[in-house]
From TrEMBL, chain A:
It comes from the Bacteria. It comes from Acetobacter estunensis. Pfam families: SoxG. InterPro entries: SoxG, TrmE/GcvT-like. This is Sarcosine oxidase gamma subunit. Gene3D superfamilies: Heterotetrameric sarcosine oxidase, Probable tRNA modification gtpase trme, domain 1.
TrEMBL record, chain B:
It comes from Acetobacter estunensis. This is Sarcosine oxidase subunit delta family protein. InterPro entries: SoxD, SoxD_sf. One of its GO terms (biological process) is tetrahydrofolate metabolic process. It comes from the Bacteria. GO terms for molecular function: sarcosine oxidase activity. NCBIfam families: soxD (TIGR01374).
TrEMBL record, chain C:
One of its GO terms (molecular function) is sarcosine oxidase activity. GO terms for biological process: tetrahydrofolate metabolic process. It comes from Acetobacter estunensis. Residues 38-81 form the Rhodanese domain. It is found in: Cytoplasm. One of its GO terms (cellular component) is cytoplasm. Its main location: cytoplasm. The keyword Transmembrane does not apply. This is Sarcosine oxidase subunit beta. PROSITE patterns: RHODANESE_3. Its cofactor is FAD; FMN.
Length: 174, 101, 419
């Protein structure tokens, strides 16, 4: 990805995430649970929760939906083997979405300009992930650590989101 | 801006949601046995109450699930939200009064 | 001597004696015990119905019952646009009839309603919209209305400040109805009220209908906050409250009530000389004679009787305005308001008998009721007087939903919040 997708302002940086693959899995609660078990987890993460299993990250974006982020190798064979036995919908969306890592001391002010969601730690703790609106663009935000966020939007929204983040970061830096 | 409580995601801003009209309108089990008038009642006729309404919402920019809500159409205040498939919950007089405030 | 006819002579006469002789435009009528016709709802449509009933159909003993005051509802809070640029056969003759009535309205009711045929320009932004507008324009011409297709250069020449070369939604042209325009909205209510009053119609304000009296399957009168009023025929013209009033007769209607917001800016020097609508979002704008920009957009999208709007739609409307004409970006909003629309299931109105004898319904105008005011009144009066639909309103039957003969101008299906 080009530098056109990077936002860098005093106190805020958005760096495009390179590599890795993304899978959207939809199914009943038992299917999602079975997938988590196949990855060695005790159970599927709760709504808006996330879980790490080896090279896979499971993000529970909806009761019936998991977004699974993996490395370039994709889903492990034990997951696809399990899914072959149950009704489900699995779609690779690696190229549909663009992700960024967001850092900086103006991070919260910048995000607040794009979304009315309260992303302070008490209501949006580490490990929390949700889909929401950023300006006009549908996107997903995930708090990966105390002061790092992961943001994903559909590829066609990327120039819009970059422009919005840049403007918001500029405002926040004042 | 309305603050709407998605039963799955919690309180969210109105812009994340899409309204889908009155709730608890069951599709007739055997449409072929209905008269045209009965089918029109199902498809087109609505109670359109001034006061408490049970209605469907979809968390379009969130978990994408449909759910039901009880809201007062005079004030746009919500009483409660609940999952699709559950019966319409009883509203206490205190809740109704609060929603009408 | 008191003056009640408006003319150059009466103006000069009153000017000479300090304007002391003007009569109130209409009497404050007290309800009588019974009437031939009772119209429930003293908005534009109700008043126009009473006027045409008395004027054209020889109706006597007519009352208009209004729960608030005349001009205080949607007729006093809309974006004042009149046009007849419809596509479907059920609609276009009706709206063209309305347009012709607007053209003769001021002479008809002896009242300056500031009918201004400044033109309505619907913009298109792509080839598909252009094809749709050509089809619509041809439909209009076939029904006796006027329509001109403007190309990009013609739009640029007519409205030079539009964002024609916008990257996302370039303006490719527009469909112009020159006979369309604006009418001073509350003057329409006042003018019809005054004209009806002069024909003997009782206009009863602050009188809310609370119930319907039905005897042996026939409506015989209405209960109101000012007592029972008997009636041979009852016409309902209650806009956003239609469902509530119909429920008094045990009826359910194919109608949902939704909030529509409209906006007025501070006064500016004249610069928009026609009505312009954006084709890529929902936004329409004109400039009032006072200088304020009058504009609006979509309904809020959920059932409501709250008569106040919400922020997301305000933002959406302002974004539409900025995309269309960036120069209004620094104009300040003076006021905005929300009214309750009777959104019907197919986006078209209902002027028909109800299953209850003696009870007639005029409803489902969605957010386009103002332009229909004269024809709605005429057709409803025709129905009340003759018990048969007016030729231009034959499609507006209540039973069209059961027959499947819906008039869905937008092709949205049974989704009132999308019409």
């Amino acid at each position: 990805m080009s530098d056109a997708l990077t936002v860098s302002r005093p106190g805020f940086t958005a760096t495009p995430v390179r590599g890795g693959r993304r899978f959207s899995l939809q199914g009943r609660a038992t299917t999602l649970n079975g997938t988590a078990k196949a990855l060695g987890l005790a159970e599927v993460p709760a709504m808006l929760g996330t879980a790490q299993a080896g090279k896979c990250t499971l993000l529970r974006l909806a009761p019936q939906e998991l977004l699974i982020l993996t490395d370039d190798a994709g889903l492990p064979g034990k997951v696809t083997d399990y899914l072959a036995t149950v009704p489900h919908s699995l779609v690779e969306v690696s190229d549909r979405q663009v992700g960024w890592t967001l850092v900086g001391e103006r991070l919260h002010d910048t995000l607040a300009a794009l979304s009315p969601l309260d992303m302070r730690a008490r209501s949006f703790p580490v490990g929390c992930a949700t889909r929401t609106l950023f300006g006009k663009a549908d996107g997903m935000v995930w708090r990966t650590s105390e002061d790092t966020f992961h943001l994903e939007v559909w590829r066609s929204f990327a120039p819009y989101i970059v422009a919005m983040l840049d403007a918001a970061a500029l405002d926040a830096a004042w | 801006m309305l603050l709407i409580r998605c039963p799955y995601c919690g309180d969210r801003a109105e812009v994340e949601f899409a309204n889908a009209g009155e709730a608890h309108i069951d599709r007739p089990a055997d449409p072929m046995s209905l008269s045209d008038e009965e089918w029109a009642q199902y498809l087109y006729m609505r109670d359109n109450p001034k006061g408490l309404i049970a209605e469907r919402w979809r968390h379009a920019h969130g978990c994408n699930r449909f759910f039901n809500a009880i809201r007062d159409t005079r004030t746009d205040r919500f009483v409660t939200t609940y999952e699709i498939g559950q019966p319409r919950p009883e509203v206490t007089p205190e809740q109704a009064e609060e929603a009408a405030r | 001597m008191q003056t009640n006819r408006y003319s150059l002579f009466s103006l000069l006469w009153e000017a000479c004696r300090g304007n002391t002789g003007w009569k109130p435009a209409w009497r404050k009528a007290e309800p009588a015990s019974a009437y031939d016709f009772v119209i429930v709802g003293g908005g534009g449509h109700g008043l126009a119905t009473a006027y045409y009933l008395a004027r054209r159909y020889g109706g006597k003993r007519i009352a208009v019952v209004e729960k608030g005051w005349i001009g205080g509802g949607n007729v006093g809070r809309n974006t004042t646009i009149v046009r007849s640029n419809y596509l479907l056969h059920g609609n276009e003759p009706f709206y063209e009839c309305s347009m012709k009535l607007w053209e003769g309205l001021e002479q008809d009711i002896n009242y300056n309603a500031m009918v201004s045929q400044r033109g309505v320009l619907n913009l298109f932004h792509n080839d598909a919209q252009k094809a749709a507008y050509i089809r619509r324009g041809n439909s209009m011409i076939l029904h006796g209305a006027d329509a001109v297709l403007l190309d990009q250069d013609a739009v640029r020449a007519k409205v030079p400040f539009l964002n024609v070369d916008d990257a996302r939604f370039p303006i490719k042209g527009g469909l112009l109805q020159q006979r369309g325009g604006t009418v001073r909205h509350d003057a329409v209510a006042w003018g019809y009220a005054r004209a009806a009053d002069r024909l003997g119609v009782d206009i009863i304000e602050n009188c809310e209908m609370t119930g319907l009296r039905i005897e042996q399957g026939r409506a015989v009168g209405i209960e109101t906050t000012r007592g029972f009023i008997g009636a041979r025929k009852i016409g309902l013209a209650c806009a956003g409250n239609s469902s509530r009033v119909a429920a008094m007769a045990g009826l359910r209607l194919p109608i949902e009530s939704h909030v529509l917001q409209a906006f007025v800016s501070e006064g500016l020097k004249p610069f928009i000389d026609c009505v312009v609508t954006f084709g890529a979002g929902h936004f329409y704008i004109s400039q009032s004679d006072k200088g304020g920009l009058v504009f609006g957009g979509d309904i809020d999208g959920y059932n409501s009787y709250a008569q106040r709007g919400n922020m997301p739609v305000i933002e959406d409307v302002c974004e539409g305005g900025m995309a269309l004409m960036p120069r209004i970006g620094r104009v300040r909003l003076l006021r905005h308001w929300g009214g309750i629309m009777d959104m019907s299931m197919d986006g078209s109105p209902i002027i028909d008998r109800t299953p209850v004898d003696g009870l007639y319904l005029n409803a489902g105008w969605c957010y386009g009721g103002f332009k229909a005011t004269p024809a709605s009144g005429l057709c409803f009066a025709h129905l009340l007087a003759r018990d048969e639909p007016h030729p231009v309103a034959v499609a507006y039957r209540l039973d069209r939903f059961a027959r499947g003969a819906v008039i869905d101008e937008k092709g949205m299906g049974a989704q009132p919040n999308l019409h």
